[in-house]
Amino acid sequence: MRHKSLSISLFVGVLLSATALYFALKPVPFGELAGYVRTVNYWWIAPALAVAVVSFVLRVIRWRIILSSSVKIGFWDAFHPMMVGFMMNCVLPGRVGELARPVILRQRNRASFMAVLATVAAERVFDLVILMGLFLIVVTNVPIDPSFGMQFGQYTLNKDALEAIALSLARLMAVLIFFIALLTINKTRLLMERTVMAAPGWLFFLPQRAKQWLREKACVFAVGTMEHMAKGFDAVKSLGRLSACILLSAGVWLLTVVFHIVLAQGFLGFELSFLEWTAVMVVVCFFIMLPSAPGFWGLWEAGGVFALLLFGVGHKEAAAFTLINHVVQILPPIVLGAISAGILGISITRLANESRKVKLDENPPSCNSPDNSQN
Questions:
Q1: pLDDT of 66-99, one tens digit each?
Q2: CB within 8 Å of 69: residues ≥ 6 apart
């Protein structure tokens, strides 16, 4: 069943990616695109990569802070699993790398799988909150041509669509922060858990056996998830650690904007402000949240081309920059992840299989068995 679900997810992702890539690159003749690519000054890739590596260092520091309530580990003990996870997200479907990190720490540091998974979820929450905040700043402060629109099949992306997305995200951010606040307060979380466990009893039309099944399967799982989510935020209950995580998260994404600016120095036809580059980054991030092929191909290009066209960049230049930007950005996690896997002595194939098979309510199998060197 899990294999079937993964296959469906991969099929939908590849279909969306192929469609998005087609519409993003369709208006650009291949000859013109290839000609422009040859004019790029590729020496600017080196300083851009240096910026990307620093952003990963900030991510590791942040994860160690979030992890501290569950397990205390050194910098490299956090760095290697994180890079392996990022690499797997770039080359394998289903974002299986998010499960790889807790599998590795479970085996190497005897950490609870669910507790570590909760810290990964907490990281994503910090990222999402910062991205939403940046998106709201961009939409309210960056002028966008109201007449511009980009067709994706029967859908049109334009200023109105961006503003509607921004409003929806603002509401989502408010609800998300409120829900997390309730989870981190013991009294309110216990009240929510009791309510969830009592809910099947309110369904008077169901037989007792069905109520019991719901309580044992759905309700127990929901309560366990809330407990682990709260655990994931335990380490940042203090104002100091919370502030540190927020600042580190902001630093990660601001460095990603700097990455774009540095890389763009090698391209002709780019005169974007810092806020406009921020808009480009945020739009790409929201695009790649959708199901996609491994490596986010297609949706990354669609988001990048659309955002750059909004700010007057030509279609040829936008397509070339987005493609090269994509390759350069996924290069560090793939290379560093491969190196980290070698240092840890982990087979990526075995780790991917174990990450897909693990049951969230059980301890996962070891990812470092005697024959794990065979890939």
A1: 988 778 899 999 999 999 999 888 887 767 888 8
A2: 231, 234, 235
CB proximity list for 139: less than 8 A, separation 6 or greater:
162, 163, 166
Q: How do strand 155-158 and strand 149-152 relate by DSSP bridges?
A: antiparallel
- Global pTM value: 0.80
Q: Is the pLDDT of residue 221 over 50?
A: yes
Where would I find the beta strands (DSSP E) of 98-195? 149-152, 155-158
Split at pLDDT 50, 70, 90, the class of 147 is low
SS percent in the chain: helix, strand, coil, step 5: 75, 0, 20
